[in-house]
Amino acid sequence: MPAVTAEEDVTLEAQPQLCVIAPGEELCVAQMHLQWTTAIERDVCIGFAHQPDFLQCWVGQQRGDHRVDLAHDDNITVRLHDAQSGQILAELDIPVIKRDLRDTRRRRRHAWSIF
After folding, report:
1. Whole-model pTM?
2. Which of 1, 81, 88, 103 is spaced 20 to 30 A from 112 at the CA atom?
3. Contacts of 44 (CB under 8 A, 6+ apart)
4. With left for phi above 0 and alpha for psi between -120 and 50, is residue 86 left, alpha or beta?
5. What pLDDT does 115 receive?
6. What per-residue confidence (pLDDT) applies to 5?
7. Alpha carbons 102 and 21: distance in angstroms, whole number
8. From CA 104, how far away is CA 36, in angstroms rounded?
């Protein structure tokens, strides 16, 4: 999944690009690495849509990165905001999926097998 750009000169990336809920667990747990770049120096803040507070803010920067530990059960939206106006400069959705690791393959007997 490429970086999401809301404005022409702003990019926002996240690693991993999706979060998987392990079997028997209720939440996806991962360390998220968020990176952003802009063409000009800006005052920006990065945060999640589901949280009112920002994770981190930068003053007069063209790029930044932040690592955060996640424990969440629903899709996550990361937003890069202009610190002064509050305008959303870029937004990125990170899907949360539940993976069932049961073996879904069916055993098949070959027609020529005697056992």
Report:
1. 0.75
2. 103
3. 36, 38, 57, 58, 61, 64, 80, 81, 82, 83, 89
4. left
5. 58
6. 47
7. 14
8. 40
Tokens 């530990």 found at: 69
In three-state form (DSSP H/G/I as H, E/B as E, the rest C), the secondary structure along 4-65 is ECCCCCEEEEEECCCEEECCCCCCEEEEEEEEEEEEEEEEEEEEECCCCCCCEEEEEEEEEE
Structure tokens, 53: 């507070």
Cα–Cα distance measured from residue 55 to residue 58, given in angstroms and rounded to the nearest whole number: 11
Q: What token pair was written down for 100?
A: 């069932």
The answer to whether the beta carbons of residues 35 and 57 sit under 8 Å apart is: no
Measure the CA–CA gap between 29 and 19, rounded to whole angstroms: 7
The encoded tokens of residue 43 equal 């005052």
Task: Determine the Cα–Cα distance for residues 62 and 48; give it in Å rounded to an integer.
Answer: 20
Report how far residue 45's alpha carbon sits from residue 34's, in angstroms, rounded to the nearest whole number. 12
Distance CA 72, CA 21 (A): 9
The number of C-alpha atoms within 13 Å of 51 and in the hemisphere containing its C-beta is: 16
